[in-house]
Amino acid sequence: MDKKSILEMCNNISKNTLVETLSIQFVEIGEDYVKAKMPVNESVHQPDGILHGGATAALAETVGSTAAFILLKRKDIIVRGIEISTNHLKSISEGEVVATARSINLGKTIQLWEIKITNEKDELISISKLTTYVRKKRN
């Protein structure tokens, strides 16, 4: 599958999920990374008008888990996020954020991902570490 088709697949299978609710869109795939963007508006704000940390963590887990599925290049697997930690470094109240997931370690069943979330000026907003677990699909 070419990269354009993979991006289309990622965006299409996200219909009627939290990914669609948060308006997360996959925008780029490289040899060692996956990128997705999310608009920052009232729908993802905490009460004081800035990006909610939970929405940020959901974006990070989404792009990290998707990266595990795509970059491991195995169609016979199910990926699950089993632990995430997110540090919020800068607040944002409007615009969009871009999350880039890159692997730190690609084990056979356990993977560790770093997800950097930046604003439109490429300033670091948050950084996450996600541990994913991979198992074979059951028939």
Largest sheet report:
6 strands, antiparallel
CATH topology: Thiol Ester Dehydrase, Chain A
Estimate the helix proportion, in percent: 10-25%
Supply the helix-strand structural class. alpha+beta
CATH hierarchy: architecture:
Roll
Low-confidence sequence ranges: none
Radius of gyration: 15 Å
Strand share of the residues?
35-45%
Count of DSSP H/I helices: 3
Q: State the distance separating the first and last CA atoms.
A: 23 Å
The H-and-E topology, N to C, reads as HHEEHEEEE
Mean pLDDT rating? 94
Give me the count of strands.
6
What is this entry, summarized?
The chain has helices at 3-12, 18-21, 53-71; strands at residues 25-29, 33-40, 77-88, 95-106, 110-118, 124-136. It has 139 residues and is of the alpha+beta class. The protein has a single domain (3-136), classed as Thiol Ester Dehydrase, Chain A, CATH 3.10.129.10.
List keywords for this structure.
alpha+beta, 139 residues, 3 helices, six-stranded antiparallel β-sheet, 6 strands
Provide a descriptive summary of the structure in words:
There is one protein chain. The protein has 139 residues and is of the alpha+beta class. The protein has one domain (3-136): Thiol Ester Dehydrase, Chain A, CATH 3.10.129.10. 24% of the residues lie in helices and 42% in strands. The chain has 3 helices and 6 strands. The protein has helices spanning 3-12, 18-21, 53-71; strands at residues 25-29, 33-40, 77-88, 95-106, 110-118, 124-136. Strands 1-2-4-5-6-3 form a 6-stranded antiparallel beta sheet. The longest helix is centred in the middle third of the chain and has 19 residues, at 53-71.
